[in-house]
UniProtKB/TrEMBL annotation:
One of its GO terms (molecular function) is peptidase activity. Its EC number is 3.4.24.-. Pfam families: Peptidase_M16 (PF00675), Peptidase_M16_C (PF05193). InterPro entries: Metalloenz_LuxS/M16, MPP/UQCRC_Complex, Pept_M16_N, Peptidase_M16_C. The keyword Protease applies. This is Zinc protease. One of its GO terms (biological process) is proteolysis. Residues 208-383 form the Peptidase M16 C-terminal domain.
């Protein structure tokens, strides 16, 4: 989410030139061999700056570009019960003026040097991304330094971004998918930070003060909870120096409130939110596995067969192809820092919502009871290993993958090991993990619309 930006004719010309450059770069990346890119992404160097800041680097001098992804662990889980949306508002303001540059001057400097600097908040971390041409690295890293160490949080910027957040929240309040997802988390985690919407609420955001925002940044932006991944035209030695320049003056240790591990509540119940729309949106969620669980990969393959593939999954074949109940139906895993979850969802005619839910539940249970066929497992492995290289076909994707691997604590050699882990999954492994997921045979179901034959609350 971004609010109104300042612009001029000169900026438009520069932006157009930058856009053309990015399009050419992306085209070159897509033309290149993606498998080779994936292999290149595994050549990771762990860089430790003179000041002790660590980062993973894939050096690539093919193009004069540097892509950086970084995260401060904590995120919206650090919002207080009466400060819902604080992490999101803080992240949205970090590039709205810093040091001696107000919002307009800061954005103008980004535009003048064709830089991209963005921040956003999730449940478990606040993320940032930086994109720059090699020749503009000095300015790029200096603006990053200002954003994370000297954000201004000027009144004008706070109120402008607050207004933009409120507009987004008002729009989300009428969107069935947003309503269903927010309600699912609220019901599943009523006394836990995960039960609160990341973006905040129409009631909470107006009460967030500048002191709240500055305090959140001061407590959560630190070196101890920082993770960094960099791809591009920069040496390990130079990266170490720039890491210290950008992040070195941050506090050593973040002041994070401990977040407890949690189990979703209300499993096996249905909640209906009446809304006058022609289709009902269905969100079904239940317990899953955390990312570092040794059985996660078996569950990942199992989910792909069930509903993770757009056109070959069981849910697609049964719900869309065989019965025409919905255009889209899917399942996916969510591995948060303190809970693993498994979701399925669809949108269907109000009069067929109950039938769709029953069918999805039946397919879920059948998969857990009987497992996939040998042919289904073979096809899933082929797709999952063959498509993995597509996650590495641009510098930004590589950096994003490396950052997530750090957050999940999977090890610096995970890229090299991942496909072998998929290939190693057997029918017995899937049978074993299905036994562990016995509780997943029931779900917390949230329906938004006017479903016929369903009630709950």
């Amino acid at each position: 989410m971004r609010a109104f930006r300042f612009s001029c004719a000169g900026d438009a010309l520069k932006a157009a030139g930058w856009l053309f450059f990015v399009m050419v770069t992306m085209a070159l990346s897509l033309i290149s061999n993606t498998e080779a890119q994936a292999q290149q992404s595994s050549r990771i160097t762990e860089v430790t700056s003179p000041g002790g800041i660590k980062a993973w680097l894939v050096r690539d001098t093919t193009l004069p570009l540097i892509a950086m992804e970084f995260a401060f662990l904590g995120g919206a889980a650090q919002d207080g019960p009466k400060q819902v949306g604080l992490a999101h508002l803080t992240a949205s303001l970090l590039d709205e003026g810093a040091g001696d540059l107000n919002a307009q001057a800061f954005q103008q400097k980004l535009a003048d040097h064709a830089l991209e600097l963005h921040f956003n908040a999730g449940r478990d971390e606040m993320r940032g991304s930086l994109r720059t041409l090699s020749e503009n690295r000095e300015v790029a890293f200096d603006l990053l330094r200002l954003a994370v160490t000297q954000p201004r949080f000027d009144t004008e910027a706070v109120e402008r971004i607050r207004a933009a957040v409120m507009a987004t929240l008002r729009r989300r309040s009428t969107e069935p998918n947003a309503i269903a997802n927010d309600r699912w988390y609220a019901l599943a985690f009523p006394d836990h930070p995960y039960g609160r919407p990341v973006d905040g609420t129409l009631e909470s955001v107006p009460g967030l003060t500048r002191d709240d925002i500055a305090g959140f940044a001061r407590k959560t932006l630190a070196r101890s909870n920082l993770r960094v991944a960099v791809v591009g035209d920069i040496s390990p030695e130079e990266l170490g120096q720039r890491l210290d320049a950008a992040f070195g003056t941050l506090p050593q240790t973040a002041e994070l409130t401990p977040v407890a591990n949690v189990t979703p509540q209300r499993i096996g119940t249905v909640d209906v939110i009446p809304l006058n729309v022609p289709q009902s949106v269905v969100v079904m969620g239940t317990v899953g596995l955390e990312r570092r669980d040794p059985d996660f990969m078996a569950a990942y393959v199992l989910n792909h067969i069930l509903g993770g593939s757009a056109f070959s999954s069981r849910l697609f074949k049964e719900v869309r192809e065989a019965r025409g109940l919905a255009y889209s139906v899917y399942s996916y895993q969510v591995a948060l820092a303190h809970v693993g979850l498994w979701f399925a969802g669809t949108a269907t005619k109000n009069e067929r919502a109950a039938e769709s839910i029953a069918l999805i539940s039946a397919e879920f249970q059948r998969m857990l009871d009987q497992g996939p066929t040998a042919e289904e497992l073979k096809e899933a492995k082929s797709y999952l290993t063959g498509s993995y290289a597509l996650r590495f076909d641009t510098s930004s994707k590589v950096a994003g993958q490396l950052l997530q691997i750090q957050i999940d604590d999977l090890g610096i050699d995970y890229v090299d090991r991942r496909n072998a882990m998929v290939e190693a999954v057997t029918l017995d492994d899937i049978k074993h993990v299905a036994g562990r997921l016995a509780d997943a045979r029931k779900a917390l179901v949230v329906v938004v619309g006017k479903p016929v034959g369903l009630s709950g609350g």
